[in-house]
Each structure stands twice: as C-alpha cells, then as structure tokens.
C-alpha cells in the first residue's frame, strides 16, 4: 500500500488507544481499512501457498512433505513473528501405496472400471485384490435390518448423497460423513468384505474423495478395506445394481498403516505489550490429504494464519495482547496436534481469549461461525457494521473448527472463518484440491477478515457483560 | 425436489393469497424454500448454459453464433413460458479476423512478443502491421499535458491498473474503463499511431481482455487501431520502457467493421392472472465477446433469466403479474437491444414494476444493487430476513444493469443481481470466460435468488408508502 496512507492509518490507531471504547468506531474503521489494503496489495499469503502447494505438495501426517512443510513454515514465521518454535507431537503415518483399481462385472460378463481411492487409515485388500458381491445401502442405519445374511462376504456400498438443498454445504457433509468415517466399522460387524463409500462431493464428476475413517473398537483381524467411489461412478454402480443385483465388485488397494512417527505443530507469536498472558490464537492445519496438494484444505488456512502475523508487523501495529499463530499437525487423521496443543496450554499461566481457525477453504470470506456464549456474541454483533464495507456479514453461533475444538471450556471464544462454501466440496480431499483452484484475492480477503477480528479482540478483550 | 414437499409448498402459497400482507412471512418463507429447492435439484439452467457455451460458443452481435443463440433460446423458452417471440433490432457487426500479433523491440534489437487483442470496434492496422514509438500514460487526463509533440506518431500505452483495494471489483473497473472505451478517441486527437490498453483484469496473467471502444465524434480518417495488452505484458512493457524510452512497438490486427445487420431480442412471458399489464422483467444479454464462450458474461444471466420462468412453471406457481424474460442483444458493443426494448414499451399500455438484470457473472449470489427511490428501498429492506437462510444479505442502492438502464424513469425498480465479484474480472471479455469457470450450484443459487425477488414483487407489487 501507499506508505503515506499507512502512516495515517497508524497515527489513527495510536489515537485509538487513548480514547474510550464507545468513541473508537472511526479509529477501528481506519484500522480495518489499513488491514484490508495491506492484504490486497502486499500480502505474502499467496506466495506462501504457492510454495506449500507447488514446491511441497500433499502433506499427509508423517510424510516427508509434512516435515518439509514444518521446516518451511517455521523458517517463514521466524521472519514475521517475535518468536517461532515447534511443539513435538506423535502422529499416525499411513501411505496409499499403488493407486487403487476397481471395477464391477455383471453376471453377463460386462466389465466396467470405476474410479476409487482408499480411505485414509484403511487396510489393504489381499495383494491380488478381492471380488465379491455388493449390496447398496442409504446409510449405516440400514445394516441392522439387512442383517448378517444379506451382508456377509459382500462389499457394502454406502450411497447416501450429500443433500443439494442445504445452502451451507458443511451441513450436507455432516449429514453423510458417518458413512465414510464409521461405515467400515459398522459393516465389519456383519461380516462385510469391505466398504465402498460415495464420495463426499455435491458435484457429479469422476474424482474419488478420500478422508479419515476409523475401525473404532473392532479387533484387528476384523478390519475390512474401505474405499471411496466418485459420484459419477456411484450413480453408475447404482444403476447397474438395479438391473443386476448379483454383479461382482472388485477392489485392489495396498495402503499401509505404519504406526506413529514424530512430527510437530509450528507455533509463532508476537508478544502483547500490555497483557502478554492473554493469547489470541489463529490457526490452520499443516497436514493435508495426499491426492491433491491441499491448497484449500488447509494450505489456505495455514497461510492466512501466518498472514495475520505478517499484517501486524508490516502495518506497524503493536498489539496489547499476544497474537499467536498455530499450524496444527494431523487434523485430517487424528487431531493429534490440536490435542497436544490444548494439553500444553493447561499447564501454562496463559488465558486464551480467542481461538480462530481457518479450515473451510480459501474462498471469498463471508464471516465467522462462533462457539461461545450470548455475552460474547453480543460483543461480536456490536462490531458487525465495521465489516460491512468488506461484505462480511455472517456472524452466527454454530461451528468453529476441529483444531480449536479441544480449547472449549477454557473461556476462549472459539471461531471459524466462514468462506463461501459452494465450491468447497468439489475439491475437498480430492486430486483437484490444487493451487490453481485458489483465487488470490479471495485468499487475501480471508486473511484480512481474520486479521480484523484479531485486531478488535486485541483492542477490547473479552466482553464481561451483555451489550444493550 | 420431493413431489410431496412441492405440494405442501404450493398449498401454503395458496393460503398466502387469502391473508393480509403482514401475516405472510411464513408463507413467503415457504415459497422461497420451494424456489431454492427446485433450483438446487431440478434446474435447467446449467444444461442450457452448457449448450450456449459448448455447442454455440462466443456470440458476438451479428455473428452466426448470436443467431444460433437467438434460435436456441427461443425454442427453449417456448417450452417453459406461455409465449415467446422475437423483437427485431439492428446491430453492429465487427469481426476480429486473424489473431493479433504484437511485440516490442529495444534500441539494442531485443524483441519481446506480447499478448494483445483488438478492442471491439477498432479498425485494423495496415495489413503488414505498424511499428512506432510508444509512450506510457496513467490515464486520459495526462494527454493534454504531454501534448501533440510527445504523442504524434506514437502508440499511447494506457497503463492505469484496476485498484486492488476496492472490495467491489466493479468499482475498480469503473475507475479504469475510460482508458479502454475512450482512449483511442482521446489519443487520436493528438495524432497517436494507435493505443495499447492494459487489460481490465485484477489478476496478473497472460490473457488480453477485449471490450467495447468508441471513436466518438472523430472523423473516420482519424480513426486509429486500439488493442488490449495482458496484465503481465503491461508490466513487462512498463519495465522495458523505464530502461529504453525509444523502444519500438509493433502491432498487427485485421479486424473489420461490417456495418449493421439484423438481429433480435428474445422475449418470453407468463401472463399475470390478476394484473396482466403489470410487468416484472428479468433479463440478461445473449451476445458476448468472441474470445471465450461468454459463460459468465452473460450466458449465466441468460440462463438464470430463463430459469425464473421455468421455476414458476415447474413449481406450479400462478403469478398475479406478468413475468417476462428478455434476452437482450448487443449489450456489449452498442446496447441496441436494450434501447429497442425500452422504445417499444413506451408505446404499450404496460407498467413495468421491476426490471432485474443478471450481468455480473454466475458466481455465488450476495444480493442486489438497486436504482430506485427510498420508498422502494424500504420495501426491499422489509424482505431482507426472508433471504437470510440463503446467505443473501446485500440490498443496497447503487447500480442495476446496462440493459435495464433505458427503463429508468418508467416507475420500475431497476435492479441487478450482485454475485460475489472477486473472480469476475479474471474472466471478463477474455478467452477464459468459459463453461468450466462456472459452478453449477453458484449459478443455480443466483437463479433462485432472482426468482425469489420476482415472487415477492409479484405478491406485493410496488410499495406506495415508506415502511415504518
């Protein structure tokens, strides 16, 4: 941005310190303008994302790429924060191995190849793959009615689609993801050969979408392979099964669980001048799935969190409270980083007042979802008009982010950036979650919006009474 | 959608007719839910757009493709409206000819190719192209100071970029587009050899963006060629000129103005049951530029307008007022269709109460811009909460659409759909304005949002007093 304008902005920020809360609207408005201007003209976020996506690539927990991402972001954070350091955390390591093969064969002998991918954490099939019958269900709740006789020895095909009529696509995801996460555990109890899950994708395409699954309390010898099938091929299989209930499904995958390996959360902060023990946390997760390069999930959140610190430094703003960026490891298949971080803060004399996560893609920001109290929501609503020039309008109770979840009941307001969600699940956990799908301005506006909320919390701290 | 749910929706709509305005919130809410559900599950808009984009392609006024688009949309509108017809309109026909060539040569002889395209309406260069010096300016207002001595015989290079700090990108466009539209006319008055205009694009890339230009009142023999240069190459040229003010710029283009040819607006309507002479208009423009296939500009607006009629028919809603879709011809280089439409309505005994245009791309809808009075804005604001579940929040005075502009002062509320604008100018008038850049859900949500506003105007007509 223009240096003169920046100086004017900074001068007005200084005035803000001297004035009472009620008279600060103009100063806050100037501060937000300064933040947005910086992000839209001099942000580092897009270049950081390009490196993470194109130079490093997919960053599955425990992979060499995840370690490269730790080292790269630590080095970059050194440049923009007062201090940067690693928090060790053990993470599961799972590898996909050879790309998966799947097809179905009708009783007349017709063979149709379908696009599948192993779910994260799944076991392999036998080395030569496995053919079996397949039974379609609309969700876990149908298994009990079908019973062991219908299921045993067959693949279970979970085909409940995401509901297109949900405007907030995360709700549609929430309505289906139990099939992916718990489908294998549930089907294994009835002796299934494996599970094939319709991809969590609102779009009809040929890309299978991976994601975490769990065997829960199953004994290891009962584990069965689990794979996702693309939405187009889910429809194809559904149609084929209508005509031929006895068709045979073949799946071959050789993924491996390697146990636990050493990894790290990356943490950096700018120390508060007045209340250094009050922490405002921003974060995203460094790990990603392996099919794409994890640009939206969650490269975007990582670089936006880094950018909050860079924005503070570059605009010369001196925060009262400590502003900390945490790049969590292993959000995707274990949440180990988030748990380790939460465990640690309870042993320190620090109070978190805001924990803000960006993990919903680098799309145009719309606002925030909050997990907090009425008193705190009242404070947030009082800031709404400051965000109107930036078309930020969504400040609602409901949802924050997986990584900040373990900080619930610490007194912190938990929050999640809410970008426009319509295209998120087109890319989520699939091979097209790539750098070219992220728009620079949308990414930058997200970082500016996060920085603005951080600024307001830094100025005012946590409200202690309901605003009239 | 589910047929039973549709029936329930329709029953509740019937109740709405019998109730007073103030008690209709629940019925309106149900109606909007029905509209959104239909659009997100059974819309034709995306299939229509695929045909316009992939089967027909770029639809420049007077081209065979524009005529194909007239015939296709007329045939499709027959299927979903009570009546569909053509309104004849004469339009300018301009063709690009051979793809343009441009490079610059430094005084030391280094030659660098740059990406350019002729602006719409420009004349050709001499057949072998033309080399000349080039002088960079930051806008039209610099020409007078430079004067004829500095400009004569050279290309004028207009390099004022769109301002990245504008959140509403159309404002950034408005701050630059005079260079493209009037740059040649202004430079010709000082004897320039031609003009090279930085593309109206916030992104740095290699794609030149065309668009309309005008020679104004210039005598024909003073016309000079005008071309756009990509943003990356504008920067390249800017850097080269810093070191070498005497470098030579070469441009070769063989575009042609063919005079006027016959074309048509495509119009279709569903007749109102109670107030057939009160018209609610929805529209977009059928013509596009020739470099891409015009999917965002304005295939999206065309199919969304068609979809408003389809939604009314498919949900069984019987409008009180006449709902009319107008697919305007020649918005891009003349606005002939819009003027012809406006001229015609003054001769008919019909009152337009709303004229709503979609011409800002098929991105996630955020709301509407209105060109109207305080009384009408008060009515619109009273509907705001009905749109909240769909994350539609922007209802502001300011801007509507070029094609509905000539209807100003008819008493109609003029409105423009406002989708998220961050990515629009990445594609606008360039070769990447293509079908793959449009997301199905975002397109459908836009059509649903338009249909919802149409429904509310149909229910309540125009407010006649300020709402308390």
TrEMBL record, chains A, B:
It is found in: Endoplasmic reticulum; Golgi apparatus; Lysosome; Secreted. The keyword Glycoprotein applies. Residues 265-451 form the Peptidase M28 domain. GO terms for biological process: proteolysis. One of its GO terms (cellular component) is lysosome. Homodimer. The monomeric form is inactive while the homodimer is active. PANTHER family: CARBOXYPEPTIDASE Q (PTHR12053:SF3), PROTEASE FAMILY M28 PLASMA GLUTAMATE CARBOXYPEPTIDASE-RELATED (PTHR12053). This is Carboxypeptidase Q. It comes from Nonlabens agnitus.
């Amino acid at each position: 941005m223009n240096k003169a304008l920046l100086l004017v902005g900074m001068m007005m920020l200084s005035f803000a310190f001297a004035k009472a809360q009620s008279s600060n609207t103009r100063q806050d408005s100037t501060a937000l303008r300064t933040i947005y201007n910086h992000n839209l003209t001099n942000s580092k976020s897009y270049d950081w994302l390009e490196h993470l996506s194109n130079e490093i690539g997919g960053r599955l927990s425990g992979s060499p790429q995840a370690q490269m991402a730790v080292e790269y972001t630590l080095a970059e954070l050194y440049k923009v924060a007062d201090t940067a350091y690693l928090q060790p955390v053990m993470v599961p390591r799972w590898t996909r191995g050879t790309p998966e093969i799947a097809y179905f064969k009708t009783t007349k002998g017709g063979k149709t190849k379908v696009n599948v991918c192993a779910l994260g954490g799944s076991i392999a099939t036998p080395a030569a793959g496995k053919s079996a019958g397949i039974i379609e269900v609309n969700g876990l709740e149908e298994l009990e009615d079908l019973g062991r006789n219908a299921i045993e020895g067959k693949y279970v095909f979970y085909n409940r689609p995401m509901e297109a009529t949900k405007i907030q696509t995360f709700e549609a995801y929430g309505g289906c993801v139990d099939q992916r996460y718990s489908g294998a555990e549930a089907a294994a109890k009835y002796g299934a050969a494996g599970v094939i899950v319709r991809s969590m994708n609102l779009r009809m395409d040929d890309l299978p979408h991976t994601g975490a699954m769990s065997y829960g309390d199953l004994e290891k010898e009962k584990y069965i392979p689990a794979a996702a099938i693309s939405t187009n091929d889910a429809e194809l299989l559904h149609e084929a099964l209508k005509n031929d209930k006895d068709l045979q499904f073949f799946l071959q995958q050789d993924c491996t669980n390697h146990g636990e390996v050493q990894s790290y959360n990356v943490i950096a902060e700018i120390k508060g001048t007045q209340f250094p023990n009050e922490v405002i946390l921003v974060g995203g997760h460094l790990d990603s799935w392996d099919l794409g390069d994890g640009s939206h999930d969650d490269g975007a959140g990582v670089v936006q969190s880094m950018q909050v610190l860079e924005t503070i430094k570059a605009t010369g703003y001196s925060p009262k409270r400590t502003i900390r960026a945490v790049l969590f490891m292993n959000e995707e298949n274990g949440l180990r980083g988030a748990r380790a971080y939460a465990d640690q803060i309870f042993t320190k004399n620090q109070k978190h007042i805001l924990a803000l996560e960006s993990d919903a893609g680098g799309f145009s920001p719309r606002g925030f979802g909050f997990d907090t109290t009425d008193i705190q929501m009242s404070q947030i609503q009082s800031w709404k008009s400051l965000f109107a020039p930036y078309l930020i309008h969504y400040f609602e109770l409901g949802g924050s982010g997986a990584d900040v979840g373990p900080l619930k009941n610490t007194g912190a307001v938990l929050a999640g950036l809410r970008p426009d969600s319509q295209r998120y699940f087109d890319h989520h956990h699939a091979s097209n979650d790539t750098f070219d799908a992220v728009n620079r301005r949308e990414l930058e506006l997200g970082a500016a919006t996060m920085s603005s909320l951080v600024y307001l919390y830094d100025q005012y701290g946590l409200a202690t009474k309901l605003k009239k």
